[in-house]
Q: What sequence folds into this?
């Protein structure tokens, strides 16, 4: 039982100050209680009460005022409410028995259990209150039995039911008060445990959010490290190509000037392509690790992959249960082979990430991959379409799509990602050819 009330629990429920809702509650209860008091008086309910009207008003108003501090000073308010009940019950029992004051006492005791930070002090305080109240009821029961004996001996009254009248009335009072105080104590305990549970859920949510943030940052760092490796490969490839062409030009410069000019033109073209790709990759890295990033679906290093490697990727995905069709549409034969190395790799990675998302987060059983290359209008477009719906419970982190958008931005590409009106999901990216201006 003590564990249920959290006696040994280290958590302390935060106690708010006296706020607007406390004032509204106290004023509303006071207004309703005074109105009910006057209605009962007008109906002749206080004919046997000799206490002055102002004292009755004071008792009702002071009881409602206790609700102002029920959350800020819960145990003090519970003790004051118990004292108020005793004094009012002795001096003006008909006023104390009004429903409005009974609600005040109930809320005061419930708040003492629900908002007390020192749970051991709460148990002691509530126990003292309950024992005192039941001692008072026991005293009334003893007096009631003596009065009934005196009435039986002197007046010769007859019993109406199985029990004497006065003890029966006191016994009813005992049962009602047991339910009354028990309900307040149990309700307060339930409120405190619910608050503790909400606090734990908030802590867990904060922990999960922190872990997700760290995983996201780690994924961004991994993605940028991979782009850095690609940058190294781009520069190394370009420099190697320029070195080979420059060496060839040097050897034939005297005997074949035309061949030397061709080699030097190739050096110029290779240098421009390498610089354009290097600028794009550096622009992505320069955004910082705090920006959106993406993770590589597979753990292998595929910096040399391109459009011609897509059939192997599609076959690998097909072996995992997803039917994938691949179409490479070239306006001119061999256009895929003439794609800049960075664009070809971007197309491959876009298809790789899109198919990974289909496998993990969609109900689709089929997908189509279409790559369109038109050198006349200078673009390369890749489109991945599936026939499924989002799978429940697999929303993912969104890093895959962010990676697609980031890579497209590196090459000034345009991205269109989202569900189709006719069903399924589409990922379409168009890369301009020619590099950055």
A:
């Amino acid at each position: 039982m003590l564990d249920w009330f959290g006696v040994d629990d280290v958590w302390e429920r935060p106690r708010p100050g006296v706020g607007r809702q406390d004032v509204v509650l106290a004023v509303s209860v006071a207004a309703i209680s005074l109105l009910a008091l006057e209605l009962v008086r007008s109906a002749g309910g206080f004919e046997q009460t000799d206490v002055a009207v102002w004292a009755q008003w004071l008792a009702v108003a002071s009881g409602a005022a206790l609700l102002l501090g029920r959350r800020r000073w819960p145990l003090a308010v519970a003790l004051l409410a118990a004292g108020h009940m005793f004094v009012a019950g002795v001096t003006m029992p008909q006023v104390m028995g009004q429903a409005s004051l009974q609600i005040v006492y109930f809320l005061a005791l419930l708040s003492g259990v629900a908002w007390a930070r020192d749970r051991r002090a709460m148990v002691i305080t509530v126990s003292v209150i309950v024992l005192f109240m039941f001692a008072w009821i026991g005293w009334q029961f003893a007096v009631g039995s003596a009065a009934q004996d005196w009435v039986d001996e002197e007046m010769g009254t007859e019993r109406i039911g199985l029990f004497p009248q006065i003890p029966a009335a006191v016994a009813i009072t005992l049962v009602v008060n047991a339910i009354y105080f028990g309900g307040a104590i149990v309700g307060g305990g339930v409120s405190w445990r619910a608050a503790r549970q909400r606090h734990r859920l908030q802590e867990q949510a904060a922990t999960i959010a922190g872990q997700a943030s760290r995983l996201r940052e780690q994924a961004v760092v991994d993605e940028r490290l991979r782009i850095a490796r690609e940058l190294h490969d781009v520069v190394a490839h370009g420099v190697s190509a320029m070195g080979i062409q420059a060496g060839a030009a040097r050897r034939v410069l005297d005997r074949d000037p035309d061949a030397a000019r061709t080699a030097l033109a190739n050096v110029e073209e290779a240098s421009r392509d390498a610089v354009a790709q290097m600028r794009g990759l550096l622009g992505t890295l320069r955004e910082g690790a705090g920006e959106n990033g993406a993770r590589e679906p597979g753990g292998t290093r595929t910096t040399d992959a391109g459009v011609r490697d897509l059939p192997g990727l599609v076959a690998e995905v097909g072996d995992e249960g997803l039917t994938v069709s691949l179409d490479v549409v070239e306006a001119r034969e061999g256009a895929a082979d003439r794609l800049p190395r960075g664009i070809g790799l971007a197309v491959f990675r876009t298809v790789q990430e899109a198919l990974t998302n289909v496998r993990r987060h969609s109900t689709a059983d089929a997908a189509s991959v279409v790559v369109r290359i038109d050198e006349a209008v200078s673009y390369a477009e890749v489109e991945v379409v599936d026939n499924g719906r989002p799978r429940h419970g697999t929303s993912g982190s969104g890093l895959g799509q962010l990676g697609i958008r980031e890579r497209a931005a590196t090459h000034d590409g345009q991205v269109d990602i989202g569900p189709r009106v006719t069903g399924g999901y589409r990922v379409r990216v168009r890369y301009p050819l020619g590099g950055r201006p």
